[in-house]
Structures are given as C-alpha cells and as structure tokens.
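Write out structure tokens for Pyridoxine 5'-phosphate synthase.
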Amino acid sequence: MTKLSVNVNKFATIRNARGGNNPNLIQVVKDCERFGAQGITIHPRPDERHITTKDVYDIKPLVTTEFNIEGYPDERYLKLVRENKPAQATLVPDGPDVLTSNKGWDTIKNESLLSEIIAEIKSYGVRTSIFVDPDPEMAEGAAKVGTDRVELYTEDFAVNYEKDKNKAIEPYLKTAEIAKNAGLGINAGHDLDLTNLKFLVEKIPFIDEVSIGHALVCDALYYGLENTIQLYLKQLS
Ligand SMILES: CC(=O)[C@@H](O)[C@H](O)COP(=O)(O)O
Ligand SMILES: NCC(=O)COP(=O)(O)O
C-alpha cells in the first residue's frame, strides 16, 4: 500500500512568521506520526524560510517512521544528509530563488552529476529518490544514474485533473511503468490533495509513497490535524 509522508514545511512557515516557537515543530512531527503518518518529509531550503538547519537536527532523532529530506544537492544539503542519515534523500533541481519546486530533473543532461551524487548518498546508507517530470525518457535516464526511486512531480496532474483526469494521468502512468520495469521504486508529490489523491493511487497502485504538505496543512485548518491525516490515509487504503 502507498505510504503517506507528511511534509511539515508549512508548519515551519507559520512558526517563522512570528519568530517564536508556535507551532512547535517537534510536537507537530510527533503528532503527525501519532495520528498515522507513515513518514515525515522536509525540504530545508537555503534561505531557511521554513525548515531551518537546526530543525533538521532536532527532528531527525524523533522520527520513528521514514524521514525524507528533499533538496538541491549542494554541499549544505549533502552535509545534512551525511550527518542525519534519513531513510531517504530526495534530490530536487530547484534553484535557491524558486517559490516552490517547479520542475523535475533532466536526467539525461545531468547524468554524470546525478550518478556521482547518488553514489555518494548511497555510500552514507541512505536511499535516494529523484524528482522527475512525467516523461518516460526521464525515467529511463533515472534508471541509468543508479537511483533507488523516482518521485513523480504531480503539479501538472493536479492542475489538469478537473479538466480531464484520464488524460492528466496518462503520462504519469507511462513514466511510472517504465521506472517500475527498470526496477525503480515510485514516489509522487506536489499539489496532491483530497480530491486527486485517490484517483492517482487507483491508476498507479504501485506508488510506494506520496509526500503531501501544502494541501494537507490547509485541510488541517478546517478539519484538525488528526482528522486530516486520517482522511488522507483513507484515500490511500
Ligand atoms: C519537492 C516538492 O515537490 C516540493 O513540493 C517541496 O517539498 C515543497 O516545497 P515548499 O514547501 O518550499 O513549497
Ligand atoms: N515532495 C512533495 C512534497 O513533499 C509536498 O508537496 P506539496 O504537497 O506541499 O505540494
């Protein structure tokens, strides 16, 4: 069954808005797991606008499920991964100035960079995943760089879901099948929510993990965190 990893970036965004410790991220992480999350995801960006370097070290010892650290693989990121050894490192090709992640890796053009970084991260004993667009060629490229998994970048799916969900899922299914046949695990994330999640996992039931943050935190404002996590888990069951 597909696991739910809760991305806690947005809790840190709210905390940082006032410079204090409310909400307390440590309590949030503990509660997400207590309420059923099967993983915790963070994306510590260089400007520390949400997750800070200190947060990474504070959160790591608490996580009893799967800790996933996302980010662009610069020296800072590699140090965080090396020193915290999460269950998974998800490599994202974000520049430092983006509002949010907005594209997947070109796994062909970046073959040598990715091969080198993935080998290094694997030498720390950490599973790797790389963020990719729904493009079969990118999945083929991913298989060549030695990653354990790919994460399908689902923004296009989320945007086009209302217009024509069957058309929206097509490139994802093709890409996921190529990745699966190449022996890779499949993750998915970005803009997944309570309206589109069930369809995604019905059509691609072999997705190992979804990481969800923005919509889940927005839903929690209305339904509460415990109910919201349960609602997301229900979509996955
Ligand atoms: C890698 C990815 O898909 C992103 O969703 C990311 O984790 C979100 O980052 P922000 O919370 O900074 O928008
Ligand atoms: N990897 C995707 C993620 O962690 C959360 O993305 P979003 O739900 O905040 O769009």
